[in-house]
Model the fold of this input.
Amino acid sequence: MKTRGRILILIAGLLLAGGAVEQLYAQTSDDFVVWCHTDYPIKNEHNQNLPGSNPTFADSIPGALVQIIATTTNGVLWPPDPVTGEPTGGDIIIAETAIGWGIPKKYPNSGAFYYAMDRPPGRGVRIYARAFNKPTLAESNYYGQTTSVLPVNSSGTRLMRSFGVHLYDLQRTDKRVDGLPTPSPSVTPTPSVTPTPTTTPSPTRTPTPPPTATPTPSVTPTPSVTPTPIPTPSTTPNYCADTLDIAVLEGLEIAEPRAGTPQGWTWEVTRAEFPEVDPYGLVFDAENVFSAQTSYPKQPAAVR
Done:
């Protein structure tokens, strides 16, 4: 793949869908974490974990390239340029990292990463992630990307500080960068086997049938009585045996507010995996006014 130089331009803002102008980066120093869990590694076109280990170690393995991209066309995920591998459709790279970044040394070639952006995306910016099968664009010939965008609805505050790419279906780099179909391996034909000549069988002797015996009449059995089935009592399901799985929270109300001030306490519904940072929505006690926060792919939720 050919490469070209990249000119860094200071961008004041993006014109997003609906005509709203928002900052590309939030005006805050809080970290924004982009990550992929080691339990859900990104695979290459051969279904193997993408290469790479933490570059802070002396014997590290160069990691496959990962890009964090802001889309400017109402959430459309454009493919990379077939020649350069750069974003198309006006999309902008806002950060780059690599497989293995932030992962402990005991997980070599984990196919995962944990990268904290020192400049989080601004409110309303829609981002997605793209991974390549090699450390550089020049080496790469396959890529994969998330199937949907993450709308950042908070300027780096505690309400929106992470982007788990495996939750948005970034699983494999199995798409050709040049847009051509993946070639199928050729199959070596199996050599034909010369058939063994058959032997002419000897004529068989027709057996003499034995005399037929007169059967003894059978005794008609007495019909058995079918027992009446005893119904099995239904069991009450175990308390809290099933998880509460949601994608979008549309409302939350406190039945009996008890706080002494309008915003004395806070009730939040969050993702169970990261309850501290990923809320669906919240309501203050005793103000009792619902505030929607973030939607996610359907998954277990928690109340805190």
The two ends are 50 Å apart (CA to CA). The first strand starts at residue 14 and ends at 15. Residues 2-22, 155-159 have pLDDT under 50 and may be disordered.
